[in-house]
Amino acid sequence: MLLHYIMLGTLIVHDWIIDLGGAEQCLKSIYKLYPGDLCTLLYKKESVLNLGIPEEKVTNSFIQNLPFSENKYRNYLPFFPLAIEQFDVSKYDLIISSSHAVAKGVLTNSNQLHICYCYTPMRYAWDLYHQYIKSAGLDKGLKGKFAKSVLHYLRTWDLSTVNRVDHFIAISHYIAKRIARVYNRKSTVIYPPVDVAQFTLCTNKEDYYVTASRMVSYKKIDLIVEAFSQMPDKRLVVIGDGPDFKKIKKIATKNVELLGFQPTSSLKETLQKARAFIFAADEDFGIVPIEAQACGTPVIAYGRGGVTETVITGKTGLFFSEQSVGSICEAVKRFEGVRDDFNPEIISKNAGRFSRERFEREFKSFVEGKLAECYSSLSFRADSSFLAEGEGISISAQVNGEIVEKDITV
């Protein structure tokens, strides 16, 4: 017996689409799997189009229309919860939120299935709260009191929205633990997609180290540069731009080369030929260390965060224990003693575990599994009374043209 349940459609909710970072690369694959309507606080047209999303499918919030919102949207942080709750999502059966801020807080109802791909609970409101307050100079004064009250409100609101999500997916086990601690919810880990095929293996390494990142305080690029200033016989290439660029430039010595922002082709070539990649951030996942590994380049990383799940000690890299100049210097010295033990082909193979194809396969399997569970429960409650023991039905649901089937035996 075949029972059809026709879905009204799927909606994707993403915080904002301005710069194309790691979250947007995840969104690209999610939208490829489930094309349709998308809601976001605000967006840049070119960014949306670069992700393969038709602009007519995108609905923005009132944040888009506020003065200077494209460049100063973070100034409107206190209004983000209100803005995300204004989206009317009632006509959709499946909601997929792609969230590192407020997207998971969209207002859903009990007849909808809401799956959240969570990059992290809001870091500036939770884990990085004190660091954010200090680095922004908001630890005292009237402006500081206002900022603290806003972030307190955001934490309260964030917790109040937890039960709007039926299932959480975390980007790493590191974030799964944070979701459990902050939200008291279990999550399934599906690592983000990395375009490892673009970063091809190179076995011929040159005599320099490399780091690449947006230059913001928590990335700790300043520590890496300071460490190499104490190792004048070793060359460091730094790729990236950001608010801390001028500060880092002041402390760079002659053996440190700052290249600023570079296109992917230049990043790829630099990663391919480097002796090793240096990574000092406490990161939720860390895409560039995987790109470096895809090139066959070993990683020297701070031993905390998502990178501990992507780098294999002694096989594809090694770790240092503290975010300090001394710890980085010690790790480089240790690496120099064993660098011939690292096999570029083994390192590159490890990166293949994080391909875009793998992400799309795992994500689709998870969503379809939860859809099948949802429809099984719904249909069994509604229609199993006419079945004798041992008889079964087959549930068939249509999601944006895709058929999801589930067999149930009474």
Walkthrough of the structure:
- The protein is an alpha/beta fold.
- 36% of the residues lie in helices and 19% in strands.
- It has 14 helices and 16 strands.
- The protein has helices spanning 22-33, 45-50, 69-72, 80-85, 129-135, 141-160, 173-183, 221-229, 245-251, 264-273, 288-294, 325-338, 344-351, 356-383; strands spanning 2-6, 10-14, 37-40, 58-59, 94-99, 113-118, 167-170, 187-189, 209-212, 236-239, 256-260, 276-279, 299-302, 317-320, 392-399, 402-409.
- The protein is globular.
Q: What features would you highlight for this structure?
A:
6-stranded parallel beta sheet, 7-stranded parallel beta sheet, 14 helices, 410 residues, Rossmann fold, alpha/beta, single chain, 2 domains, disordered N terminus, globular
Order of secondary-structure elements:
EEHEHEHHEEHHEHEEHEHEHEHEEHHHEE
CATH superfamily of the largest domain: Glycogen Phosphorylase B
Going by CATH, the architecture of the largest domain would be 3-Layer(aba) Sandwich
Question: How far from one another are the termini?
Answer: 13 Å
Number of DSSP E strands? 16
Output the number of helix runs: 14
Largest sheet properties? 7 strands, parallel
Given as residue ranges, the uncertain stretches (5+ residues, pLDDT < 50) are 1-6, 379-388
